[in-house]
């Protein structure tokens, strides 16, 4: 109190909390530059209707473009169109990739009556293997880790025979994955033993 | 910043290193005095993540705070700028320049000298004991002219949040006088690799 030499340090937290777009991760006022505008708008309207109004209501848009020169407006419109087309193309590509990708859930017999379940192909659906491995571990209360496969890629290996449960879990949690794109395989021990 | 950066393991920093980082932050950004205990709590454990191009990102509890290339001046991550916007020197670009900056292009002078842009007022009116007259004035405009090489936040016409951070390759007075040429190169901007990097 008497110490006036020190700069005044506020006792209340001063950190602002900024909401970021759930789709493109930018502050929503910048979604127009992200290339996923439509999706961003849908998300914002649902999650933060007030903010949506502030940014995307006709009045707000008019106020925003009013300060742009005609030429700049044309440029912006053209640019937005190009971005949207690019985004659409990228989306289509990802959709095609997903349609042609298969997730394999393989039951592997390690020792007599001891199984592990190996899941491969998840990355084609944009999933983070480490994250999913963690989810598996939690969900099935068992060991679950990402391991390299000889062919160069990675797969998730879960302790125990949980093939059906994993399929069910994936379909439930990741709606992007069509049921037909999941393949269950039983890898019987061919070699005698080791 | 490049478009995509792989996340890397984090390592805890010794308290002596944390102390010296804190000191250099306060030297570079005097207005941080008000907030430094909130940004870097005494008991917090700051971690460092080594990124490509000899860049180091400093992270606390999964929140990105600052980064630096080699041992140059520390720059705030945009998420930190959004939390404490008044703590850093800033300039403002006009609406038309936003899309260029957000695509990683060099920021050019006309984006700042046009009507939508804003450069420091050059009038040290703000009365803060720790800032020696620098800061944001009533119109939210930074007061002190900035020298070539100084770090600066890039805000944007019509937007609340800042969109980029970088070093000036031209002093703000020169920008006003010349009205052309590059002003910030290789900025960290919204949506770049550093922005998208997972830090938790
Ligand atoms: Zn968005």
Please summarize what this structure is:
Chain B: Involved in translation. By secondary structure, chain A is of the alpha+beta class.
Tell me what the structure shows.
Chain A: Interacts with the 40S ribosomal subunit. Chain A: Its main location: cytoplasm. Chain A: It comes from Xylaria multiplex. Chain A: GO terms for molecular function: mRNA binding; translation initiation factor activity. The complex is a heterodimer of chains A (194) and B (200). The radius of gyration of chain A is 25 Å and the shape is elongated. Chain A is of the alpha+beta class and 194 residues long. The relative contact order of chain A is 0.09. Chain A has helices at 37-47, 49-56, 58-66, 70-99, 129-140, 163-173, and strands at 103-111, 114-120, 144-148, 154-159, 182-187. Chain A contains six helices and five strands; from the N terminus they run ααααββαββαβ. Mean pLDDT of chain A is 83; it is low at 1-5. In chain A, strand 3 (144-148) and strand 4 (154-159) form a beta hairpin. The longest helix of chain B has 14 residues, at 15-28. Chain B is 23% helix and 22% strand. The model of chain B has no long low-confidence stretch (mean pLDDT 91). Chain B has two domains: 10-83, Sulfate adenylyltransferase; 87-189, Sulfate adenylyltransferase. A five-stranded antiparallel beta sheet of chain B has the order 1-2-3-4-5. In chain B, strand 3 (55-60) and strand 4 (63-69) form a beta hairpin. Chain B has 200 residues and is α+β, with helices and mostly antiparallel strands. Chain B starts with 9 loop residues before the first strand and ends with a helix. Chain B is globular, with a radius of gyration of 16 Å. Chains A and B meet through helix 4 of A and helix 3 and helix 4 of B. Bound molecules: zinc ion. Zinc ion (ZN) binds at residues 21, 23-24, 26, 28, 31, 34, 40 of chain A.
